[in-house]
Amino acid sequence: MAKEKSEKKGKKWILWMLILLVVATSGGVVGTVVTPKIMSALGSKKETVKHHAKTVVSGKQQLVPVKKFVINLTNEDGSDNAQYAQITLSFLVANSEQKTKVKKDVAVVRDSVINVIRQKKASDILGSSDSLAGLKSQLRDTINKAYGTKIVEDVFITNLVIQ
């Protein structure tokens, strides 16, 4: 009698595991097949993406992402405690030709960014609500000066960590 009960429990356990496996597999398949279709339908309807109040990405403009930077900051009090900024940026340029130029000459961009941020303290970057806007303007102006022309229209900070 006890043997029959344990066999029934074993069969029920196997049945529940099979049901769980079928549900999980079908959920994964549906998610994999349906999600890209929904995302592409939503993406095709968007012609203009607003990033913030001043900047609108539209038409031929292109975003150029740049690999992250890890940069030593200037010490706050002159002590030996080093602070670092890890920052990831994207740049808005007028067209695909300028995007190609920025990607080709990425060393110019990286040098400009490092030179600007290396002179900053953590409080310069995070000190007030206008600090990041000022930093973005300074980065844009420095990069454009290095190129000798207005190539970067706007700078987007996509990731920022200060330690």
Note down, in words, how this protein is organized.
With 163 residues, the chain is an alpha+beta fold. The protein has two domains: 1-46; 56-162, Tetrahydropterin Synthase, Chain A (2-Layer Sandwich), CATH 3.30.479.30. The protein is elongated. It is 54% helix and 22% strand. It has a three-stranded antiparallel sheet with strand order 3-4-5, with helices on one face. The chain has a two-stranded antiparallel ribbon with strand order 1-2. It has helices at residues 2-45, 96-104, 106-118, 122-126, 131-147; strands spanning 49-50, 56-57, 62-72, 84-93, 152-162. The termini are far apart. The model is unreliable at 44-53 (pLDDT under 50). Helix 2 packs across helix 3.
User: What is the chain-wise order of helices and strands?
Assistant: HEEEEHHHHE
Q: Characterize the overall form.
A: elongated
Mean of residue pLDDT values: 82
Count of discrete structural domains: 2
The percent range for helix content is 40-55%
Q: Assign the CATH superfamily of the largest domain.
A: Band 7 domain
The tally of beta strands, per DSSP, is: 5
User: Which strand-content bin applies to the residues?
Assistant: 15-25%
Instruction: Look at the helices and sheets and give the structural class.
Output: alpha+beta
How would a textbook summarize the main sheet? 3 strands, antiparallel
Number of helices: 5
CATH architecture of the largest domain: 2-Layer Sandwich
Distance between the termini: 67 Å
With strands numbered from the N-terminus, the spatial order across the biggest sheet is 3-4-5
CATH fold-level label of the largest domain: Tetrahydropterin Synthase, Chain A
What is the CATH level 1 assignment of the largest domain?
A: Alpha Beta
Contiguous runs where pLDDT drops below 50 for at least 5 residues: 44-53
